[in-house]
């Protein structure tokens, strides 16, 4: 298998922030990059300095890695359309043919169908979620260094231990030019349960926070706290609505727990119970410090 970035051939489906950053990172490392995006303008911009050509049926069999960086539904649709072609040029047992990964923010909705297609057509697929991004979207904001030091979460298919380790080793080698900081391996279901808290809930809270009438008159009265809490209120509504609906059960539970916690603060305020409010604040502070300490020990 190819190990030098200069010898790699990479396919990218979707040239938004994440797909565009994959494309730019691999191109900066010396790889040959092919891509497909539904926007002709985006493809024209990418051709200037990033991609060698379109990821079509001729380019697909020549790729070492194909990155599906579209919405979850579009990822599975592309796989369904190209599964037969991928199978015809692949032998997972021999480690040949393209390895396919996706970068969607939910894994169960994509992996359930992708694992089935990969099994039935004999090509290699691993779910993947790069834990990196910005509040901006689109190819114009893509950066070659977006993934440097960032965590990557992988969700391999339910195969035997040797096959899984071999496949993960291939993926780690192919992703090496992007210089991810850490790799974690889990199941799609476990991923989605945690990501509902670490990512989706944060976007819901930020997006809901700016709906306060006071937001219209905050200028001159805000600093770091406002900036930090509102950073991800600016988002891609179509993408996040699809991600959240695909993970609706987990996210709904997280929102319920948050509402319960917020209600306790409101009740203490309405009752004028300073001691109760102090206890609630101290409890949150203690939990955050404990989490920070655990992170420091883990690193």
From TrEMBL:
Keywords: Oxidoreductase. Residues 8-299 form the Prephenate/arogenate dehydrogenase domain. Gene3D superfamilies: 6-phosphogluconate dehydrogenase C-terminal like domain, NAD(P)-binding Rossmann-like Domain. The keyword Cell cycle does not apply. InterPro entries: 6-PGluconate_DH-like_C_sf (IPR008927), NAD(P)-bd_dom_sf (IPR036291), PDH_C (IPR046825), PDH_N (IPR046826), Preph/Arog_dehydrog (IPR050812), Prephen_DH (IPR003099). Pfam families: PDH_C, PDH_N. PANTHER family: PREPHENATE DEHYDROGENASE (PTHR21363), PREPHENATE DEHYDROGENASE [NADP(+)] (PTHR21363:SF0). Belongs to the prephenate/arogenate dehydrogenase family. This is Prephenate dehydrogenase/arogenate dehydrogenase family protein.
């Amino acid at each position: 298998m190819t190990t030098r970035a200069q010898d790699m051939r990479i396919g990218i489906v979707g040239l938004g922030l994440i797909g565009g950053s994959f494309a730019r990172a691999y191109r900066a490392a010396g790889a040959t990059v092919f891509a497909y995006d539904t926007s002709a303008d985006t493809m024209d911009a990418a051709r200037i300095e990033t991609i060698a050509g379109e990821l079509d049926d001729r380019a697909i069999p020549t790729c070492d890695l194909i990155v599906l960086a579209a919405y979850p539904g579009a990822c599975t649709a592309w796989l369904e359309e190209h599964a037969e072609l991928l199978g015809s040029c692949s032998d997972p047992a021999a480690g040949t043919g393209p390895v396919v990964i996706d970068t969607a923010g939910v894994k169960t909705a994509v992996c359930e169908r992708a694992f089935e297609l990969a099994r039935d057509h004999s090509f290699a697929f691993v779910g993947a979620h790069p834990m990196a991004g910005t509040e901006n979207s689109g190819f114009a904001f893509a950066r070659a260094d977006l993934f440097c030091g960032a965590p990557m979460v992988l969700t391999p298919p339910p195969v035997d231990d040797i096959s899984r380790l071999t496949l993960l080793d291939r993926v780690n080698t192919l992703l090496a030019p992007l210089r991810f900081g850490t790799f974690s391996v889990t199941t799609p279901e476990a991923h989605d349960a945690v990501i509902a808290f670490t990512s989706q809930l944060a976007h819901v809270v930020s997006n809901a926070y700016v709906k306060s009438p006071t937001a219209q008159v905050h200028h001159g009265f805000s600093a770091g706290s406002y900036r930090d809490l509102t950073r991800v209120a600016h988002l891609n509504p179509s993408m996040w609505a699809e991600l959240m609906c695909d993970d609706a059960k987990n996210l709904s539970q997280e929102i319920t727990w948050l509402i319960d916690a917020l209600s306790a603060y409101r009740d203490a305020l309405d009752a004028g119970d300073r001691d109760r409010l102090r206890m609630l604040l101290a409890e949150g502070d203690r939990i955050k410090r404990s989490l920070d300490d655990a992170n420091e020990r883990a690193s």
